[in-house]
Design goal:
By secondary structure, this protein is α+β, with helices and mostly antiparallel strands. Helix content is 31%, strand content 24%. It has three domains: 5-51 and 157-224 and 308-376, 3-Layer(bba) Sandwich (FAD/NAD(P)-binding domain), CATH 3.50.50; 93-149, no CATH class; 226-306, D-Amino Acid Oxidase, subunit A, domain 2 (D-Amino Acid Oxidase, Chain A, domain 2, 2-Layer Sandwich). The chain has ten helices and 18 strands.
Length: 377
């Protein structure tokens, strides 16, 4: 039987959307790529992060916050359905600062965003001494921090496993090792894979991460996405000493400290470099000097999926109606929204969120270079 939806992409984005559609009674087939594909979810830092997102882009802040606030119930339902504990902690997170000027500027930016969000942006500024009360191992070079109370972190690999299991338990099909070569539309969509597998579906959701760059054009999208490399480090298991995560470090439930991440424009090169890892290690030790004695057990590089301005893309194809592009670089943070709210948009429900600000229309008649520059700020 042909499904209502074929979701191309079996990462956090595709599986979250698939689970949401299945919960609404739709039939879904997820088509996942081969092991050689670039997989952002498997290299993810695991943060559920709001602070700093949406400076000058309030709609993005609202969408991210809506997802962040839905994460507790989303996670509880996922755990109840699968029995998998994804390691969710949502007790706040830090942005650490090494100079007073940067701290002051960021506080001003956050205050402005807080006003735009009607006051619902709970953060507080901690001096070095106040931070040390929360994090006794913080280093003397850290002048202070911003603690945002809606932030947190999760185990992205366990999340991926739980979502895949939840999709299957709801009756969804997950086809692995399938490389989609082309998509055609006659009465319905016909998805052709390299191993001759063919899937016919009423609608298609393109959530293939970087794979959407080529497939998107076939479906009539601009698909202006690019890779951005992030390198990460993990230490040996250590006694618990980091209370809350930051953009520099987070201590996972097993005890290891994850250190990340670089932001590098190097094309599709996902290799680690000595220089990149050295920068990460230096910053981590400056934040928590105790890490200077820790043994490193693993390093890796992964590629983020970036749009020119850094915001998600949610777009229905004008050339092939019924085909949708769903892509973002915050697949973990937005997982709750992609399950709980995005399916209503795909279905054209009266409850659908207004996602027009994330359409590809914003890229028309604007140079990609200017958009990338704006996104960097």
């Amino acid at each position: 039987m042909s499904p209502d939806y074929a979701v191309i992409g079996g990462g956090a984005v595709g599986l979250a959307v698939a689970w949401g559609l299945l919960k609404r009674g739709k039939t879904v087939t997820v088509i996942d790529g081969g092991d050689g594909a670039h997989r952002a979810t498997r290299g993810n830092f695991g943060l559920i992060w709001l602070q700093g997102k949406g400076i000058g882009k309030t709609d993005y802040a609202r969408w991210s916050q809506r997802s962040v606030l839905a994460w507790q119930s989303f996670c509880a339902e996922l755990t109840e359905a699968t029995g998998i504990d994804v390691g969710l902690e949502q007790k706040g997170g830090y942005k650490l600062f090494f100079d007073d000027a940067s701290l002051a500027k960021t506080v001003n930016d956050y205050e402005a965003l807080k006003m735009e969000l009607g006051g619902n942006y709970p953060f507080e500024v901690l001096s070095h001494n106040e931070l040390r009360m929360e994090e006794p191992e913080i280093g003397p070079k850290v002048v202070g921090a911003i603690l945002h109370h809606q932030d947190g972190h999760v185990n992205p690999l366990k999340l991926l496993k739980a979502l895949a299991q939840a999709v299957r338990m709801r009756g969804g099909r997950v086809l692995t090792g399938k490389i989609v070569q082309c998509v055609e539309k006659r009465d319905r969509f016909e998805i052709h894979c390299s191993d001759t597998t063919q899937i016919i579906a009423d609608k298609v959701v393109l959530a293939a991460g970087l794979g959407a760059a080529d497939l998107g054009v076939q479906l009539g999208f601009m698909a202006p996405i690019r890779p951005q490399r992030g390198q990460l480090l993990v230490t040996e298991k250590l006694p618990k000493f980091i209370r809350r995560p930051s953009l520099i470090t987070r201590q996972v439930e097993e005890g290891g400290v994850q250190i990340g991440a670089t932001n590098e424009e190097v094309g599709y090169n996902d290799q680690v470099t000595t220089a990149g890892l050295a920068r990460l290690a230096s910053q981590a030790v400056a934040a928590y000097p105790i890490l200077g004695k820790a043994q490193l057990v693993r390093s890796w590089g992964a590629l983020r999926v970036m749009s020119p301005d850094g915001l998600p893309i949610y777009q229905e194809s004008k050339v092939m109606p019924g085909a949708f592009m769903v892509t973002c670089h915050s697949g973990i943070t937005l997982a709750a929204a992609h399950t709980e709210f995005l399916p209503d948009w795909l279905e054209g429900s009266a409850r659908a969120p207004d996602l027009s600000m994330f359409s590809e229309k914003r890229f028309e008649n604007v140079s990609i270079e200017k958009l990338i520059e704006a996104g960097a700020h």
